[in-house]
Each structure stands twice: as C-alpha cells, then as structure tokens.
Amino acid sequence: MERLSYVNPLQGTASVYEYSYGNTLPLVSRPFGMASWSLQTREVKDGWFFHPSDRRLNGVRLTRQPSPWIGDYGQLLLLPQTGPSCLAPELRPSSYEPEKSTLRPDYLSVRFSRYRASLELTPAERSAAIRLAYEDSRNARLLLATYEGESSFQFDYAARTLSGFTRASRGGTPDNFALYFVIAFDCELDETACDIYNAEFAPVGALSHTGEQLSASVGLKLPTDGTTQAKIGLSFISLEQAALNMERELGDADFDELRSQAAAEWEERLGTIEIKSDEAVDQLRTFYTCLYRTFLFPRKSYELDASGRTVHYSPFNGKLCEGPMYSDVGFWDVYRTTVPLFSLLCPRELGEMLQSWVLAYKESGWMPKWVSPGERGAMPGTLIDAVFADAIAKEIDGFDAQTAYQGLLKHATLPPDRDMVGREGLDHYIRLGYLPDELVHHSVSHSLDYAYGDFCLSVIARALGDGESQLALSERARNYRLLFDAEVGFMHGRQESGAWRPDFNPLDWGGPYCEGGAWQCSWAVQHDIRGYAELLGGSEQMVRKLDELFAAKPHFNVGSYGMEIHEMSEMAAADLGQFAISNQPSFHFPYLFTALGAPSRTQYWARKTMEEHFSAEPNGLPGDEDNGSLSAWYIFGAMGMYPLCPGVPEYTLGSPLFGSMSVKLQNGRRLDIQSVNNSSDHKYVKSVALNGETHEKLFFTHAQLTEGAKIVFQMTDEAILQSYSPQQLPFSQSDVSDCG
C-alpha cells in the first residue's frame, strides 16, 4: 500500500485573509525537515503567497513560514527562465497548469509555460535536488530572488556554484541572523549570462555583491537535451556548513535516487499507522493527508558539524550552540493534540524536541511560547507548561526535566523582564488569582490558561518530588473559580475591585476572551471538569449547558475586534452551534460529554465533525491548521480517543472512524484498534474490549496503549444511555482536587 499516493499537499490551501480552510501551504519537505519548498503564485513577501485557483506562478519558494499570521524567514525564490531577462516581481510570473503539475510530500514538478521550462525538486532535511529542463536551451538561466533584508551572492565559475545568504525575516531573529545557501550545478555556467542585480534590478557588474534584496541570474550551458541538475545546501551557521549539509545529505546520488530516498522516508512515517486499503478512498486520503501535516512541524533547526556534533545557530542569543533545536511552533496551538500524538507515534523525536526547548530557556532566560525561529510571544498563557507536563506524566525521556522545571517555575513565579516572554500581568494573578479585565487584554483567556498551567506544573512538581511547590500550584490551579459568574453562567471578565465587567453578552467576541466569546472560552478547565461542573450545578447541568452550546445558532457579535475576523466566519459556516472547531479553544468540547458520563453525545459530535468538516481537498479543513494541531485532532478522532487533559496520561473515548487500524510503536509493540459494524450510521459505541477483556472505563491510559494493546469497539446505530461510576470516567484519580 503506497500511502504517499493518498496525500494531497493542497489540503487547506484555498485560504485567504478573510477565511481559512487551513491556511496551509503545499509543502514539499522531509518529516520535520529544516527546509520546506512550496509553489508561490502571488507576489507577497509572506502570508498568503499561494492559492490553488491561481494559474500564474512566480516560482518555487524555499519557505519556513509556519503560518501566514507569523510570516516567513530565510526565504528564497527559484524561477527558470528563457528569452529576454525579466527580473521585477510584477513582470516575471509565468502561466502554469496546476492540473498538469505534481505536488507530493517528496516531490514537485511544474512547467512554466511562458518560459517553456520545467523544474522538478525533491527535498532532503537541509538541502534539495532540482532538475531543470528547457525546451529551448538558448539563453537558459535560473533566477534566484531574495526578499526584504540584506542579501549576498557570489559566483564561482570553476566550481559551478552560486552561494550567498539572505537575512529576510518577519521577526524572531537577532541582527546576525542569516540563511546561507550553496547551489552547485551539473552543467557549466555561462559567464556572459550570469549577473547579480540590486534592489532596482540593475546589474552590479561583479562576481560577488552584498546589498539589499538582491537577485541573481545564473546562465546555464546546457547539454543537447536541454536538461541539467543542481543541488542546494542550506545552513543557519555558515556557507561552509551549507556546503557540508549538501554533501552529507545529497552526495553523488542523482535526482531519482534522492527522490526515492525522500519517498521511502515518508512511506515509513505514514506507515506508522496502517489502515486497510479497502476503506473508503476519500477517508484514506483525508487521514493520510492529515498524518502528513502532523509530521511537518516543528522543524529541525539544528545541523551536524564536520565532527558530527549536533549544533545550532541560536535565534535567542545569536551564537553557535551545542545541542538540538526545533522551531516554527506555537505551544498554545499544539499542546492540545499534536504533542500528545507525538508521545504515541514518535516519543524519541519528542524527547529531542523537548530538550531543544530546554536549550531555548538556557539561551534566552525564558521558556518559549511561540518560536519562529526565536520568540514571537503570540497567544495567551504559557502552554509549554502542558507540553512538558504531558511528557513527564507519560515518562518520555531524552530531555533535562529538572532544568525544564526550573524554567517553567520561573514564568509562574517571576514577572517578565521584557516583552513577549513569561506571563503577562503575573503580579496581578498572584495577588488576586485572576487578571483584572481593565488592566490586561484577554484577561479571562490568560487567567484560565495560567490556572491550567499551574495544574500542569503541579504534575511536574509531584513527579520531581517538590511537595511544597506541588501544594501551592495545586491551590493556584483552582483560581479559575474566581472568574465564574453564577448569574450569567459563564467565565466573565472581572475588574481589580472584584466587580464584573459590565454589559455581559455571551455572543460578544474579544475583550476578556481571545479569538472567541464566553461560549468558546469558558471551558478551558480541562484539569478540573468535575469542579467546574459543581459551579454549573452538577454534571447533568453541565451536560445540558453543552447541549445548549451545540444546539445554539452560530451567532456572534464582533465585540472589541470591531470587525468580523476569520474565526467568526468559520464558526458561522460550520453550523455546529457555538462549537468553533476552526479554533483550538473548542477542540475538547465534544469529549467533555464523555468525561461527564454522556459518551454517546461525544460519539455523535466527534463523528459528525470528522465526516462533514474534514477532507483532503483545498477547502478540506474547518479552520487554521496551526502546526498540525487540527490534523492531529482528526487523527485522534479517527483512533476513537482524545487527550482531554494533557498532563494527565489518559485518552478519553470517542468514536473510531475505521474498521481496522494498527499503530506501530517505537518500542516495537503495536496498538491494534478494530471497530466492528462501523459505518456512518453505526457511529455509537456499544461496548469496548481491551486485550480480550471487557473495558468499562471511558478512557485508556497511556501505559495501556504503549505496552501494546488490542482494542475492539462494538458499534451500533443507537445511542447508549447508561450511568457510569466516577471510577469509569476520565481523571478519576488525577483531577485537580486530588493533585494536592
């Protein structure tokens, strides 16, 4: 079974500023690769530079953009040309035929109609191989364009190379940041047609030049068949390291050999989860495309020096440092689904990622929040707390847990000493237990994330034997109660005086809430669901409140945003009530039902969402993909489980999507999941067996899964209504009330 054939990199790319179907790019890359490549159809320096409906192509872009909201850095553009020289961005695009192009994770192929030239590319981790074919070999050349920022080019005709660097960056980089590149061609270079151009597209008349936003035209002396190959090495360290990366990864292998290597690596990754090929093709395409997307981020930013040491350029201090580094990831996004999925599918790589973020703390003084490549400071809270708590609770190794804990305690106890780090308004939180609405933007979202972060730190404190901090943090984890307004039945912005924010409306977005309103942002208490249920009047009342959420009209008021942001538009279009699956704060809503003893509601809403709102098409995601987080939500849903509270090593039961699934674990064991009598009509779980024994609990532990297990779901077409004991529900031994 060739799983690559099911993957469509165009998934989620039919996005614009006003509406996201994923806000993804059609990335050609190795899993977690440092270098990613995409088509560019629109002339913008970053953001929405590709759309699948466009029929004009600016070139093939080296990109590290994790999100259009974050932007790109170290980007380059490649464009084969013939005929008169054409350099200006608005003048150089060529028509192309998307339907005759090939986009796969391991390979892209595209023909530039205007220039009667084709480019193929296959990626390695820090390099790539390209193959160029010109129908008219006269005046054939390859254009390299940089973006805003200082850049440099240098020709070496004897070595048949073009090398240089670019400092293009949207942010998160020190002044000495650069992406270094070396391009080596198989054919000789035509010296008369090689030029470097300045930002005004005038030739500088030199073999090397450094300046603002340069471009270079590489003249090619092609063989008679008009085809040649080139290899590209990349580095954040130096030109020498870029050449070393190219030689180490590509060597003497030809293009087809390198493509086979890339395909084999992707097949191995996708083969981590095996699904029978007799399942519906559309579902297989969606599943394996989502699995591909979970393995794109975070990206490796480390390299191996000449002696084989793991080293990285630190975007936090601008120095060359030892050890691994991973970037292009926001922890507010990935802690809910992506990282818990890594703990199952690739714990070895997860350990390395965690160690890299420990190093980020050592190099910057603060644990990271949103890194691309350095700190960007986006989104509320410090949700890296949950990332480390989940790993420690699941006994993931490969990182320095003590130093991680030191860094996590710092942002929980010390106010930030600069922008974009730590916990905003921490003094208020420590004094009041919440952030005053009139003093801190998104006060409710921040406060709830701080309380959950404190729970996660209490989990780590317990594991590391710090009993005093465990008790204090467990108590702080209850702070969410201070923001519950019983009169309105929601989490509510509260002023320093203790008074509630006036003029409450649960449909108002913004203000105390981030990317949502009271309906979307009042449920971020996954660490103490029973305690929250008590505030709502008990578990049955909380179930009724959730029923109301899913049954409500998807109405909203723009509130403090002052305009309709894309998350509002996507929630309205999904027609799932106030369940905004398009955005991370709503991810756990369906699975709350199971934690409250109403699993059939979880099964209904999870299956409905998977079947109606996910596909492999360009409009196939219900909102921002955000570093694999939305895809990982789908993967977990298809497995019939969900990590409801990262930091607690349990997975809440849902409704599996496939009849048979087998997960290859890195410890050599297998997790087999079967669902008998499964279909769109038979979405409800009648019974569950684990290793041949009846499984009455509504969750699995991480240890049960990683020890190797056979799970059998018996499916039915009728919702099963029955009562459950507390011991059968998730968090029976590990909710916040027990943590102290």
From TrEMBL:
* One Gene Ontology CC term in the entry: cytosol
Record-level GO BP terms: carbohydrate metabolic process; glycoprotein catabolic process
Domain Glycosyl hydrolase family 92 N-terminal: from-to ranges: 6-235
Species whose genome carries this gene: Cohnella phaseoli
TM stretches of this protein: none
Q: Where is the Glycosyl hydrolase family domain?
A: 241-716
Provide the protein name: Putative alpha-1,2-mannosidase
GO terms (molecular function) for this protein are: carbohydrate binding; peptide-N4-(N-acetyl-beta-glucosaminyl)asparagine amidase activity
